[in-house]
Amino acid sequence: MLRTIALLALLISGPAWAQLAEITCNDCRDVYTYPKDFGNYAFNQVLGSQPTVSLAVGGRLIVKNNQNQKAVVDLAYVLSSTGITLDFGIFSLLLPVPAGEVQVLVQDPRGNRTKYFVLTNSPDLKVGADKPPATPPSPTYQPPPELMAALSAEIALIEDILASIEVTGVGILDVQIFANPVFLNLGIISFLLGMLGSM
Amino acid sequence: MKHSWTILSVLVLTAGFVAWQLWYDDGGSITAEPDAQVAADPATPVETLQKSGSSQSKLAKNDFGPTVEAEQAGATVCESGTAFATDPETGSVLLPRRCVPIYPPAPDPYSTWDNDSLAAAAYNDPGAAQELGLRLLRSDTTEQEAMGVALLIRSVAISGDPEAFRKAISARYSETASNGIPQIRNLKQQLVFSIIGRTLGDNRFEPALVESILLRAQINPSEIDRVRTNTHAILENMASLQTEMTGDTSIRRALDNA
């Protein structure tokens, strides 16, 4: 009976996992030069300020631009290794929880992969080129002296912050565990199914 | 007895996941794509899925007539198609719906100003300071980047609204790692913005999260202390600047309560 319930749960989860939405990004530039346009657009559609795609299908998306170039974008939560531990007496179950970061993986039609991370609650990410005239001033641009004088204290503090980067060891960002929301769901149900089967 | 509790717990967990999944399936209705360019082409049906109960958009329950997304900032008129479409991969039936904005979003007035005009107004105009700051921080030189951040800080100090920091994160500092390499500069700058934003009462900023990522990237903890110390000095300057420019003491009060 229990096994049947768990199996049903697994089957119900299936169709949601199978859906793959295709979305059109009008501002995305050439996929081989600017793959992050596609990743950022997917992030904005799923986790941005005005999401149009639910998380149930948003784990993997196809994003295409006006030139009909397509990229597959995977959004996956970074999971905290210190999740919630459920203690059942005879065994304990560690439920990993999202750690506040999302991995964005963009794969272009040639198979090149671009991987980067952003915070889950990031503001909408930049897609496409800067709109003129909002282009950076020339490298030699200097604001008027009176404005520079007003900003000097903050400039010194910010430059001090950005000046040195001292790392004590090799970063461990590559060995985190990830989960598409739907895969996370399936994974835990599969685990429960296996556990029930062993009873 | 112990065994029964285990079975009961597993049942509750399974039921929870099934309910969660069903909840998403319920929310799989087709709603508007707020994309004027796509919507302008009637031959291009837009098919997206939206979670039900989302605060972003509440459509009137009328599948066959124009509906207005009144609760969305950029209100749109949406009209359902008369034919259904089928997703070739899943076989799911989708209802195309096209949306056209009622009013196109107003352009930011400062975006058309040249740099000199912005610089002339930036001393006491938070909008001008923000626009020039956002332009400068895209620069490749650290000096101009710091100038840009300083202008954003000035903008936030005068307006009391840390939204400019979120725009800065979006423009330059959003990535925490790229192809396996931690982006320490981005993270440090995000930490500065997060500490200030949270102190000003915006809970979308999460300094503890940024700090934990920095520690995971194995940055020397003394560097985090330095960021905190400098940020506190920046906040002190912001409080003084706000009082001097506007007479408001909200940053000072927030700082005292932090």
Summarize the structure.
By secondary structure, chain A is an alpha+beta fold.
Question: Can you tag this structure with a few keywords?
Answer:
heterodimer; A: alpha+beta; flat; B: 258 residues; mainly alpha; 3-stranded antiparallel beta sheet; 10 helices
Measured by DSSP, the beta-strand proportion of chain A falls in 25-35%
Strand content of chain B: 5-15%
Compute the average pLDDT of chain A.
75
Largest sheet of chain A: 6 strands, mixed
Helicity level of chain B: 40-55%
Output the helix-strand order of chain B: HEHEEEEEEHHHHEEHHHH
By helix and strand content of chain A, what is the structural category?
alpha+beta
**Biggest sheet record of chain B:** 3 strands, antiparallel
Which spans of chain A of ≥5 residues are poorly predicted at pLDDT below 50? 13-18, 171-175
State the end-to-end CA separation of chain B: 49 Å
Radius of gyration of chain A: 22 Å
Alpha-beta content class of chain B:
mainly alpha
Please characterize this protein's 3D structure.
The complex is a heterodimer of chains A (199) and B (258). Helix content of chain A is 35%, strand content 27%. Chain A has 5 helices and 6 strands. Chain A has helices at 2-18, 35-47, 55-58, 145-163, 181-197, and strands spanning 21-24, 60-64, 70-87, 92-107, 113-119, 177-179. In chain A, strands 1, 2, 3, 4, 5 and 6 form a 6-stranded mixed β-sheet that branches. In chain A, helix 1 runs antiparallel to helix 5. Chain A is flat, with a radius of gyration of 22 Å. By secondary structure, chain B is mostly helical. In chain B, 53% of the residues lie in helices and 11% in strands. In chain B, strand 5 and strand 6 form a beta hairpin. Chain B is elongated and about 75 Å long. Residues 24-74 and 80-86 of chain B have low confidence and may be disordered. At the A-B interface, helix 1, strand 1, helix 3, strand 4 and strand 5 of A face helix 1, strand 2, helix 3, helix 4 and helix 5 of B.
